[in-house]
Design goal:
It is built from 11 helices and no strands. With about 260 residues, the chain is an all-alpha fold. It has a single domain, classed as MFS general substrate transporter like domains (Growth Hormone, Chain: A).
Length: about 260
C-alpha cells in the first residue's frame, strides 16, 4: 500500500539526509528499476488480437463516474480520512523529529530509518493477524473500526510528551493498527461494491483513497502550523480524523 511505500522511501531518504544532492541522483534510477521489476515479474497476456469495441466518449467519461451508493461512499471516505490522519505525521516525520522532538540531524536520520523498519514489521504483523481473524468471526466492520480508533489513541503519547521514544511508540502502535486496518478494509471494500458489472472501475475509484491523502495532508498540516498551533495541531486533527473514520465505517449497512 502507498503508506508503506512512503515508509520505505523515508528509510532510503534518511540515508541521504546530509547528502541531498547525491540522494536526488538516485530518484530517477529507482523509478526505472521499479518499472523494470514490474514488467519482468508481473507479465500480462498479449491482448492485441482481442476484438475492440468502438470508441465512445460517453463510455470513457462513465469510467470516472463515482457511484452514489451510500455504503460505497462511506467506505471510500472512511479510508480516505484514516489515511489522511496517518499522512499528517508520516509526511512530516523529518520536521517532527527535528523541530518538535528536538533531535540533531544524525539522530533524525537514524530514527527515521528505524521507524521505517518498525512500521514495516508492525504493519506486517497486523496484516497477518487481522485477515484470518476477520474470516474466522465473519465480521469486517468491528475490526476496521477498532483499528481506526487505535490509530487515534496512538497519537496521544506524541501529543502529550514529545520524544524519540513516544514517536517510535506511535509508529509501533499505529503500524500494527494500520496493517490490521488495511487487510480487512480491502475485503470490506469488496463487500460494498454496488455493481457486479463495474467492479474493476469501482474498486479503482476506491483506491483513490490510497493516494489522495498524500496530496491533502501537507495542506492540512501546513494550515495548522501556519495558524500557530505547532505540531500538536496536526496531531490533534489527525487523531480526530481517525475517530471520524471509525464512525464512517461503522455506519456501513451492507457488510457486517
Amino acid at each position: 500500500m502507498s503508506a508503506r511505500d512512503g515508509i520505505l522511501g523515508s528509510i532510503v531518504g534518511a540515508a541521504f539526509l546530509d547528502d541531498l544532492r547525491n540522494g536526488l541522483r538516485f530518484v530517477p534510477w529507482i523509478i526505472v528499476l521499479t518499472a523494470l521489476i514490474f514488467v519482468l515479474f508481473a507479465p500480462d497476456r498479449d491482448n492485441r488480437g482481442d476484438q475492440r469495441e468502438a470508441f465512445s466518449l460517453r463510455e470513457v467519461l462513465a469510467t470516472f463516474r463515482i457511484p452514489k451508493d451510500r455504503d460505497y461512499l462511506l467506505a471510500l471516505f472512511g479510508r480516505l480520512v484514516l489515511l489522511l490522519a496517518f499522512y499528517c505525521v508520516i509526511l512530516y516525520q523529518l520536521y517532527v523529529l527535528q523541530d518538535y522532538v528536538g533531535l540533531d540531524s544524525g539522530a533524525v536520520a537514524a530514527t527515521i530509518g528505524l521507524s521505517g523498519v518498525v512500521m514495516a514489521v508492525a504493519s506486517g504483523l497486523g496484516t497477518l493477524v487481522s485477515g484470518p481473524l476477520s474470516d474466522k468471526i465473519g465480521r469486517r466492520k468491528p475490526l476496521v473500526t477498532l483499528a481506526s480508533w487505535v490509530i487515534a489513541a496512538a497519537f496521544l503519547p506524541l501529543i502529550l510528551a514529545p520524544s524519540r521514544t513516544t514517536f517510535l511508540l506511535f509508529i509501533s502502535i499505529a503500524g500494527v493498527a494500520y496493517g490490521f486496518y488495511i487487510a480487512v478494509d480491502q475485503a470490506l471494500m469488496s463487500d460494498v461494491l454496488p455493481d457486479q458489472a463495474s467492479h474493476g472501475k469501482d474498486m479503482g475509484i476506491l483506491n483513490v483513497a490510497n493516494t489522495a491523502p498524500s496530496l491533502i495532508a501537507p495542506g492540512i498540516a501546513s494550515l495548522a502550523l501556519g495558524a500557530g498551533l505547532g505540531y500538536r495541531g496536526p496531531f490533534i486533527i489527525a487523531a480526530a480524523l481517525a475517530v471520524v473514520s471509525g464512525f464512517l465505517i461503522n455506519a456501513i449497512r451492507r457488510a457486517r
